[in-house]
Amino acid sequence: MSKSFKVAVFGASGYTGSELVRLLLRHPNFEIAALSADSKAGRPMAEVFPQFSGVALPDLQKIEDIDLTGLDGVFTALPHGTTQSVIADTLAKRADLKIVDLSADFRLADLDAYAEWYGHPHKAPELQSEAVYGLVEIHRDKIRSARLVANPGCYTTTAELPLIALLETDAIDADEIVIDAKTGMTGAGRAAKEGMLFSEVSEGIHAYGVGRHRHMAELDQEFSVAAGREVRASFTPHLAPMNRGIYATIYVKGRGSIAAEQMHRILMERFASEPFVTVLPFGQVPQSRHVRGSNMVQLGVVADRRPGRAIVISTLDNLVKGASGQAVQNMNLVLGLPETAGLQQIALFP
User: 274 and 163: one domain?
Assistant: First the structure.
């Protein structure tokens, strides 16, 4: 009999929270022991998300009412700025718990950078020092022994996977990176907002956070570590009229005589044994619809018409590999389970 672990989802009434529940229900080793929501506390999960009708799940509770006894792990899918205090309080009560945090609260190792980008001092600096950045394919060994894992952002996961591999091998000019990325509507969260109404976003696309999006701080951090020096990439996010997905078109310049074909070979070799990253044949372009609902990332490399330059395309499902799927992947690692457990579903197509 396989070992079973009891887990809780704090913030189960949002999109990433409901996606966690969907993934955990089919996980062979996880039992959902508690679910939290704030304004929806006391309601059945199926009342908030009707896709769970007929499924036996705990009712939603306030976090302070959840009994931590017997839990092995907690997923925190809460807004940034509030999660630090919640996690600090939770670990004060149960220091042996494993926590995977889906907010941005523990992603930045530099506390001054956090204060600059998020507008307030970090509320749990003692925990930030132990948090491990949860980009599994890059930090797998550190994650295994972590108590607190900071799940990366969806945009950053999409861009970092191919670019870190190219920066670590000194294959590209670190000062010539341009990331043009699009996200589906779920990336904006579930809260009611006028600008998110169907008639406001359908049949169009627009950039936002131009010149200063908070994910830039994550990109700066991880790219600089990979390159061994300060890196500041250009990054512009866009909102696209689709429910799910991230699609990043990345423009890079090879160092020295390195051409697009060599960059493709580097990515092929780097991700050859990774269960959730597929590098397509050279010149082939990935499509967001081909990873929808899965924990997969698809990468493609195409030669630019200008010698020495390449176009790297990366796509993933923002709610799965960009959030909840990667969180399960991280929790699998910290609890000593097979990394792929509960995550092997194929993409939904069409």
Answer: yes
Task: Identify whether residues 134 and 71 lie together within a single domain.
Answer: yes
* Catalytic center residues: 154
What are the tens digits of pLDDT across the range 270-310?
Answer: 999 999 999 999 999 999 999 999 999 999 999 999 999 99
CATH number at residue 93: 3.40.50.720
Half-sphere exposure at residue 103, Cβ-oriented, CA atoms within 13 angstroms: 22
pTM: 0.94
Cα four-point dihedral sign 332, 338, 339, 342: negative
Nearest-angstrom CA–CA distance, 21 and 6: 13
Residues 6+ apart with CB under 8 A from 64: none
State pLDDT tens for residues 228-257.
Answer: 999 999 999 999 988 899 999 999 999 999
Q: Does 203 share its domain with 141?
A: no
Measure the CA–CA gap between 205 and 257, rounded to whole angstroms: 37
pLDDT per residue as tens digits for the range 18-56: 999 999 999 999 999 999 998 889 899 999 999 999 999
Which residue range(s) make up the domain with 122?
5-151+321-334
* Domains held by the chain: number: 2
